[in-house]
């Protein structure tokens, strides 16, 4: 039986993004106030664009906030498919311009070769992570835990921070934070927009096979609190 996540449904994406941006900003500032620094892990793809823009304007102590990605496509950071590019253009702007950002992509040719260096570059991030914002694909993947990939098992069982993934149903080799890394977090948000995502989310609650629905690795666990923010 899956533990119920907190599920919040909003009438509009605007309302969702506004509430979520406020929550994240509040939790990051609380972390800075109580521990001197904060960590924020964000996802890429199309869903979080507006959320990033709102968040970038929040008046918090961004210079003490460490930001990285839950996953990255192994492409140059100025290419259109780069999650880093999305973060640089939309989140690391305005007041958030002086946050401490580390991307996951490095100069190695493949994520397999680059993984160790990426893990090292995240070594000074405050752990447990303070806030993690995840997305979900319509195949049930979150981070780059793709059900189609032969590396899924490693991403879900490895005790390392990062893992390489080569999806067969999505473009680009990937680097992803592992399940172990993601679940060592004070707060996880799952940001879902659109009825297709709601259908997949409901399917994931019923399908006990995490290999078919990797999002279950986040939903069916008791280590980290998960709040689902949904709008059609
Ligand atoms: O490829 C990815 O997909 C998921 C979902 O993306 P969306 O475009 O449907 O929002 C995303 O969470 C992940 O970070 C990204 O690399």
Radius of gyration (Å): 16 Å
Low-confidence stretches: none
Helicity range? 25-40%
Q: First CA to last CA: what distance?
A: 26 Å
User: What is the global morphology?
Assistant: globular
Structural class: alpha/beta
The tally of structural domains comes to 1
Structure notes:
The protein is an alpha/beta fold. The protein has one domain (6-231): Rossmann fold, CATH 3.40.50. Helix 2 (49-55) links the parallel strand 2 (38-42) and strand 3. A 7-stranded parallel sheet has the order 1-10-9-6-2-3-5, sandwiched between helices. Strands 4-8-7 form a 3-stranded antiparallel sheet. Helix content is 33%, strand content 19%. The protein has helices at 13-35, 49-55, 83-90, 111-121, 152-157, 179-183, 195-206, 216-219, and strands at residues 6-10, 38-42, 65-69, 71-73, 100-101, 131-134, 162-165, 174-177, 188-193, 226-231. Bound molecules: ligand LXAUTJHC. The ligand O=C1O[C@H](COP(=O)(O)O)[C@@H](O)[C@H](O)[C@H]1O is lined by residues 43-47, 70-71, 83, 135, 137, 144. One of its GO terms (molecular function) is 6-phosphogluconolactonase activity. It comes from Shewanella maritima.
Task: Report a brief summary of the structure.
By secondary structure, the protein is α/β, with parallel strands linked by helices. It has helices at about 15-35, 50-55, 85-90, 110-120, 150-155, 180-185, 195-205, 215-220, and strands at about 5-10, 40, 65-70, 70-75, 100, 130-135, 160-165, 175, 190-195, 225-230.
